[in-house]
Amino acid sequence: MKFAFNQSCEDVRDGLALFGPLEQPKIYGIRSGVIGTKRGLEIFKNYIDKIQKPVYNSNNITRPFFPGFEAVFNCKWEANNISFKEVTDKEINEAISLDNNHTRTYEVVNLFINKILQAVKNDEDKIDVWFVIVPDVIFQYCRPNSILPKDLLQRKSTLKKSQAKKFMSAPSLFDEDNVATEPYKYDAQFHDQLKARLLPHMITTQILRESTLAWESFTNKFGQPLRNFKKIEGHLAWTVSTAAYYKAGGKPWKLSDIREGVCYLGLVYKQLERDKNIKNACCAAQMFLDSGDGTVFKGAVGPWYNPKKGEFHLKPKEAKALLSQAIKSYQEQMGENPKEIFIHSKTKFNKEEWDAFKEVVPEGTNLVGISIDTRPQIKLFKEEGAYPIMRGNAFVVNERSAFLWTIGYVPKTQTTLSLEVPNPIFIEINKGNADIEQVLKDIMALTKLNYNACIYADGIPVTLRFADKIGEILTASTDIQAPPLAFKYYI
């Protein structure tokens, strides 16, 4: 990875601590907006004060300690530089008292979104990142399969889910019925729904539970922490700080050995759970450049899923439209056409969609389709030693396919990135032509581009790492029209 002063380092945490981030945000310091209860505000402020000083882990070799926010990023993030918008406990309890997951989650999300939008509209101060500090009661009862205890139930929804589905396909003659269907257009998942509904407004958020930042204060009846982060407090500080810095406009690091002029696309598919047709799915593309910049392009909804084969494939029209968006964005950012485009997908490409991709690729650009299968297919065991094989080992099957161990033993941290014998990912050059060893090197590098978790490396390249989560946000409501947006709006 490459950091300030054109310096490179293997571990992003060492690179940040030694040299500082690649690029500073165009601000003196991070201006935070906080949406939450008064208790949530105090928890957040105390945590910001805490990470101004070094924060340690139980083992600072496997997980390097956090030196302090300003020491790492050369940027201020102060507890007294916060714009606070309160959501009261009374408001939360009233919204949560609904019997239905959809209406309950919708009303709770409304509380937070309305505060943010009012602040953006009326306040003069520009907020870099809005921190949504969530009481654990929201995490517990604003999820798809959550069950509300009878003692908290105070209100019943005016419309049942079966009735709402009926009115969504054939609107009612009564306006109040159609209004009551609105919550059912969204998934009953607080995190995904809030992110999805803020996409059209292009507002960056970081959602954090109160019990994450103040884990010691949340205990069971025996006085033991419900979520014990004692051994990894430094790791938590790295993760929260890097995500905040990135979302505020800074660039922590970039890939150091990736060739210039290369564009990486990860295809995202997600079935529509509320659709009667099981074939219907949403599609999107994540684009990553050698600079580290990421952009998400939402594609069309259609019958992309084949239930017999368990695969997703686009039709020619939609394939052209999606890739054209990515190429146009690359041209606008870089001022030229890409030399190479690598499209990563969890399934193989068929001839119909690949021919459509090739039609919109500029002349002189090499287009390569890479399928990445994460399902366990092979394991390697060592005869000696306490650790599994090293991360980065590969078994090249032939000139177009290989198994790659993106997790495994790492000498630098003196430990393994997996809790058990690691599984490799299977990589195949499904369409087009490329050097298999170069493809493996690129994928290894792309496992280190996750700004949302400051760790040594991921097991999956960033092109596909967030595919499921982005798909869930995009399908939290199919009514939301999201323009091409930076990756930071989704994570």
Q: Describe the biggest sheet? A: 9 strands, mixed
Any idea what the shape is? globular
Helical content class: 25-40%
- Biggest β-sheet: strands ordered side by side in the sheet: 12-13-16-11-10-5-6-7-17
Beta-strand percentage? 15-25%
Low-confidence spans: pLDDT under 50, at least 5 residues?
none
Average pLDDT rating: 89
Gap from first CA to last CA: 21 Å
- What is the β-strand count? 17
Q: How many helices does DSSP assign?
A: 16
| Whole-angstrom Rg | 23 Å
Secondary-structure-derived class: alpha/beta
Topology:
Elements: H1 12-19, E1 32-36, H2 38-50, H3 69-73, E2 82-86, H4 89-96, H5 101-122, E3 129-134, H6 136-141, H7 161-169, H8 175-180, H9 190-198, E4 205-209, H10 210-213, H11 233-247, E5 262-271, E6 281-289, E7 294-302, E8 305-306, E9 311-312, H12 316-334, E10 340-345, H13 351-360, E11 366-373, E12 394-398, E13 401-404, E14 409-410, E15 415-416, E16 425-431, H14 436-446, H15 462-465, H16 467-474, E17 485-486
Parallel strand pairs: 1-2, 1-3, 3-4, 5-10, 10-11
Antiparallel strand pairs: 5-6, 6-7, 7-17, 8-9, 11-16, 12-13, 13-16, 14-15
